Amino acid sequence: MRPRPRPRPRRRRPHDTHHILNLDIDVILFDFLLHFVVAHVCCVVLGALRSDALSFADARARAVRRARTHARTRARARARTHARTRARARARTRTSRADDRDDERRPAAAEHAATMSKVMKTAQEIAVTAARIFGHHIGNGLPSGRKVLRKRLLGPTFAAYYPESMAKLDALMVDPNETRRVIKLERLKRRGKGPPKKGEGKRASKGK
Fold first, then answer.
1. Secondary structure of the chain: what % helix, strand, coil (to 5)?
2. What pLDDT, on the 0 to 100 scale, is given for residue 10?
3. Residues 6+ apart with CB under 8 A from 139
4. How many other β-carbons are positioned within 10 Å of the β-carbon of residue 167?
5. Residue 92 — very low, low, confident or very high, per pLDDT cuts 50/70/90?
6. Is 111 helix (H, G, I), strand (E, B) or coil?
């Protein structure tokens, strides 16, 4: 009997390695999911820590700003109080100096007032005596009309503005204006247009 031939080893084809590939894909997916979950957890934790750190920094900055504002306000109030105190002290000093000067000046002012009253009285007496001697008028400061009465009269000046007629100065002189007036009046009388006699005009006849 012939011996059986040894069977050849069977080659693995690509479609026969699906269980190995499936195993590798599952491992890869598991590793990916595990890494993703770990990264997500780390991100969440870091975000929470960062937000806490930012909130703490904001709170600290707010506290620092509030402290600076309070310090600035206290400094301003202290400066205002100090300025008011200095102003009051200066005012008191000024008032006391003014009072001292007034106390020093009062006797001199009283003496000066007495001297000036005597001088004024003497000046008034001198003015009254001079007015009596020279014929001047001393008024009381109220309007009296003396200013108008002392003015030069203007009537003669107005009357002498127009010169006198030569007919009045010389009897032999004939005034042409007067001659013209007489001729015109005679002409009107001949026409019946002359001036009416006294008591014969329209006004006199209207009342009858």
1. 75, 0, 25
2. 60
3. 146
4. 14
5. confident
6. helix
